Write a sequence for this structure.
């Protein structure tokens, strides 16, 4: 096990991939081929590349949803493996936002957002206070009691964003978070995303095809054919 | 609260499917309660016929059916003389028939038998019983279906009998039965000098063990059992009870399969949703809890509905005049609890495979599931 925080000069590494290999269908489809990557605390990183290049797979590995065939994945200095506490990772350290909002349609906005707090056993009153805070910031305060079916696409994605941040994770993994929205809604959500991660002090690793959005991140990482080819600093 | 909402959300989402599952459990519970209650009631009534207010029953050891039991008449005489015995009455059971009524229970009894002494005599006088060998006393229902009354001649089997009384008892088997003097019954059934059982009332109930030992010592071919003991051990009763529980168990099994089917469908149609829970930090146990919770809600609702249906059905049976006195529809609280518990366990068992399946869902694959 690695130390809880890795200091790289002045910046702390929160996500690290070392020589990651991952393939599917009994090794016939190699998706990641020796990926090396680091994300620092509070940094926003755009992960760009064509479909099927391994962006989502890399995010899943960082979130502990899948395990690499070989190589090491570390989150906040702790290596993720079969024996690590994946629940703690999912409950407290990372938050996910997907292209499809992945909300439970029959529950209300409030209930959907409270799911991570129920999983983590967080006091209901504290959870509610946190929800109100996030709902205010995302402009959803008036929609708390509405069912997901009644919300617009943008509102659903904002709800997903709230849910991802409920347990105050310091890492947000976003897989094409604006991919299913029109340009205007997409910009609004992305502004909100950047604002939230900045105020929460969270790092953002976002897979996206949108070069314009990617350009607004601190760093841009290009992926091709299962490898990271270049690291470009947008800002 | 959210956890419970997650449980009921899916039930509400598929209302018809949920209702069918609840109905499956409900009808299983109702069937089990009805069958077991009726058979337990019948056994209780039959026990009542045998004991008729006594504490002990003496009959032939290892006999498969009391109708085949032969207890020597001398034994009854000797037992009644034992100091610990307050009263001992030999009873001969038989089945007789008359035109249109192939099965009528016949009781060969002495005038001192509680059945004769304690019954409500609608017609006739109990002091007239056993004055003549061709005298019979009819239960009220038997008198009704034999179309007989005091003074009538009735054809029973190959012989004609003179009705000297009609009596009313709460027990349907007795109410629809024929009471003959013991000697007449022995002659009618070609069992001279014997009876089926001896019902014994002790002066002191604590003497039961000593009485049993004495019977064993004096009459190795006979066995004495306390009423409750007899009800528990008599093979016919045990077969009946086993049959009732087996039939009820099959019903519950079907109900459980219904729940299993519902829960499997429930899991398969919400794989993505379960994956979302997983991504949001739900543990395997919490995911399993959602599935088990869902099946528990179905089971509990089904069990409550089954309890209501069973109670209504038994009440309806009680209102049928032809069954009055033949079935005891009193539902014992312990039986209700047991059946409810079984229904709950069946429902939970039905969710076992779906829950394990749900717990094994890999979020990364499930999120690709459309």
């Amino acid at each position: 096990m690695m130390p809880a925080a890795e200091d790289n000069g002045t910046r702390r590494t929160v996500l690290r991939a070392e020589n990651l290999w991952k393939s599917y269908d009994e090794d016939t489809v190699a998706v990641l081929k020796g990926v090396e990557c680091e994300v620092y605390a509070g940094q926003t990183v755009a992960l760009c590349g064509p479909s099927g290049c391994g962006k989502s797979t890399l995010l899943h590995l960082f979130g502990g949803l899948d395990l690499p065939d070989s190589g090491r994945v570390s989150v906040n200095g702790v290596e993720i493996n079969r024996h690590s506490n994946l629940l703690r990772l999912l409950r407290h350290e990372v938050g996910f936002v997907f292209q499809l909002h992945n909300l439970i349609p029959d529950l209300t906005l409030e209930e959907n957002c409270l799911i991570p707090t129920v999983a983590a056993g967080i006091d209901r009153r504290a959870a509610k206070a946190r929800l109100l805070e996030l709902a205010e910031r995302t402009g959803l305060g008036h929609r708390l009691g509405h069912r997901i079916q009644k919300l617009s696409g943008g509102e659903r994605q904002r709800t997903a964003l709230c849910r991802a941040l409920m347990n105050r994770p310091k890492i947000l993994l976003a897989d094409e978070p604006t991919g299913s929205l029109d340009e205007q809604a997409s910009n609004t959500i992305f502004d909100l995303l950047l604002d939230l991660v900045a105020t929460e002090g969270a790092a953002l690793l976002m897979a996206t095809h949108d070069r314009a959005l990617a350009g607004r991140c601190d760093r841009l990482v290009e992926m091709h054919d299962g490898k990271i080819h270049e690291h470009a600093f947008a800002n | 609260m959210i956890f419970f909402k997650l449980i009921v959300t899916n039930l509400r989402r598929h209302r018809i499917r949920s209702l069918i599952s609840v109905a499956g459990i409900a009808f299983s519970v109702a069937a089990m309660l009805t069958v077991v209650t009726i058979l337990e009631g019948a056994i209780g009534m039959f026990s009542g016929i045998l004991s008729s207010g006594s504490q002990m029953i003496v009959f032939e050891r290892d006999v498969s059916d009391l109708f085949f039991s032969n207890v020597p008449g001398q034994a009854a005489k000797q037992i009644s003389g034992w100091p610990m015995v307050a009263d001992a009455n030999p009873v001969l059971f038989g089945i007789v028939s008359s035109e249109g009524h192939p099965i009528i229970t016949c009781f060969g009894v002495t005038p001192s038998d509680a059945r004769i002494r304690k019954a409500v005599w609608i017609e006739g006088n109990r002091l007239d019983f056993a004055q003549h060998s061709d005298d019979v006393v009819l239960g009220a229902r038997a008198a009704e279906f034999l179309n007989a009354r005091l003074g009538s001649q009735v054809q029973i089997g190959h012989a004609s009998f003179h009705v000297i009384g009609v009596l009313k008892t709460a027990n349907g088997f007795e109410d629809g039965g024929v009471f003959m003097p013991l000697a007449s019954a022995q002659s009618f059934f070609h069992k001279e000098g014997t009876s089926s059982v001896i019902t014994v009332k002790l002066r002191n109930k604590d003497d039961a063990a000593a009485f049993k030992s004495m019977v064993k010592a004096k009459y190795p071919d006979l066995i004495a059992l306390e009423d409750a003991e007899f009800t528990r051990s008599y093979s016919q009763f045990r077969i009946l009870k086993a049959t009732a529980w087996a039939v009820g168990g099959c019903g519950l099994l079907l109900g459980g399969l219904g729940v299993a089917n519902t829960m499997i469908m429930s899991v398969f149609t919400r794989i993505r949703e379960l994956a979302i829970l997983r991504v949001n930090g739900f543990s395997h146990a919490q995911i399993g809890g959602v599935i088990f919770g869902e099946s528990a809600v179905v089971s509990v609702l089904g069990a409550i509905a089954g309890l209501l249906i069973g109670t209504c059905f038994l009440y309806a049976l009680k209102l049928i005049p032809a069954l009055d006195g033949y079935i005891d529809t009193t539902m014992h609280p312990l039986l209700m609890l047991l059946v409810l518990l079984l229904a709950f366990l069946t429902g939970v068992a039905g969710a076992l495979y779906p829950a394990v399946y749900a717990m094994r869902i890999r979020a990364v694959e499930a999120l690709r599931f459309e």
Remarks:
- The longest strand of chain A covers residues 11-24.
- The interface with chain B takes residues 60, 63, 65-66, 87, 90-92, 96, 98, 102-104, 106-107, 111, 114-116, 118-120, 124, 163, 167 of chain A (CB under 8 Å).
- Chain A has one domain: 6-233.
